């Protein structure tokens, strides 16, 4: 094991010296999205030399879809590359670490076997984390969308144009970056201020959100915003009603999930209470 560990260190260190200057610019630009930036150049070099993007095109395309939903289609390719580099970086760390533990522990090759099992599971763990993040983002968007539609209805009724109403929805919240829906809407509002057409801005907003309910909202706006007046307000009110129903359904689902997660802790607490209550009686009988 000592020989294997030394070989890993020598080869890894040599490749790292070669890779660091080559990917210096990429590391600087994507520093916040790379885990263990010190080892990331080695992962990027291995990805390019082994042509992992070609051999793993199908799994990476699934990751790309998740990244498009999380960060938008413009940066999805870069984020997918960072994701693959992160997985490979953790695989390298686990592989070297398990070899080191196999050498210093008495278990020998057993620790190396555990490390290999963990390495096989790592891509699925990283992918699952991405899927959960995207699901949470979409759920949060669905919870916020009915409220935003109501605000637009009120502003349009008060005489604002649709463009101004969208901008006011963003301006009224100083911490809109914490809201995925308003963050995407802020990008659309900025595009409108830069004289991008309203239709193009809304279509890009729809693509970045990747949610069916947002698609219904943007379609309703694009079909009726030129007409304005009562037709737009009535269409948005009908959409708002259906969105509130979906929000209620989602809130009910989230409540059921929260209650199901509490079952195991409650069982553990019940067992602890039973032990505390029964222990004195058992000791007295003894």
Provide the descriptors you would attach to this structure in a database record.
286 residues; 13 helices; Type II secretion system protein; membrane; T2SS_GspF_dom; cell membrane; transmembrane helix
Describe the structure.
The structure is a single chain. The chain has helices at residues 2-22, 24-29, 40-50, 52-55, 57-71, 76-104, 109-157, 162-171, 180-193, 198-209, 212-224, 229-261, 263-285. The chain is flat, with a radius of gyration of 27 Å. It is built from 13 helices and no strands. The two termini are 53 Å apart.
Report mean pLDDT, rounded to a whole number: 81
Question: Low-confidence spans: pLDDT under 50, at least 5 residues?
Answer: none
Strand content: under 5%
Q: Describe the main β-sheet briefly.
A: none
The ordered H/E elements are HHHHHHHHHHHHH
Count of beta strands: 0
Helix content: over 70%
Helix/strand class: mainly alpha
Radius of gyration in whole Å, from Cα?
27 Å
């Amino acid at each position: 094991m000592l020989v294997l560990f030394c070989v890993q260190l020598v080869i890894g260190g040599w490749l790292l010296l070669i890779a660091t200057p080559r990917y210096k610019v990429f590391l600087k630009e994507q520093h916040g999205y790379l885990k263990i930036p010190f080892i990331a150049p080695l992962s990027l070099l291995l990805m390019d030399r082994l042509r992992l993007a070609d051999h793993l095109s199908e799994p990476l395309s699934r990751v790309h879809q998740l990244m498009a939903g999380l960060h938008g289609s413009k940066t999805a390719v870069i984020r997918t590359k960072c994701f693959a580099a992160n997985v490979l970086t953790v695989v390298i760390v686990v592989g070297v670490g398990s070899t080191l533990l196999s050498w210093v522990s008495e278990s020998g090759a057993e620790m190396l076997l555990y490390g290999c099992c963990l390495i096989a599971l790592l891509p699925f763990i990283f992918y699952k984390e991405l899927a959960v993040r995207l699901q949470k983002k979409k759920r949060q968007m669905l919870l916020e969308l009915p409220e935003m539609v109501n605000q637009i209805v009120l502003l349009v009724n008060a005489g604002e144009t649709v463009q101004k109403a969208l901008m006011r929805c963003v301006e009224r919240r100083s911490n809109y970056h914490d809201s995925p829906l308003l963050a995407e809407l802020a990008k659309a509002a900025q595009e409108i201020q830069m004289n991008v057409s309203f239709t193009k801005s809304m279509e890009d907003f729809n693509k970045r959100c990747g949610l069916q309910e947002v698609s219904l909202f943007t379609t309703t706006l694009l079909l009726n915003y030129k007409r304005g007046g009562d037709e737009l307000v009535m269409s948005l009110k009908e959409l708002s009603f259906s969105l509130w129903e979906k929000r209620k359904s989602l809130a009910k689902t989230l409540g059921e999930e929260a209650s199901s997660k509490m079952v195991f802790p409650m069982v553990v607490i019940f067992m602890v209470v039973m032990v505390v209550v029964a222990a004195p009686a058992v000791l007295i009988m003894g």
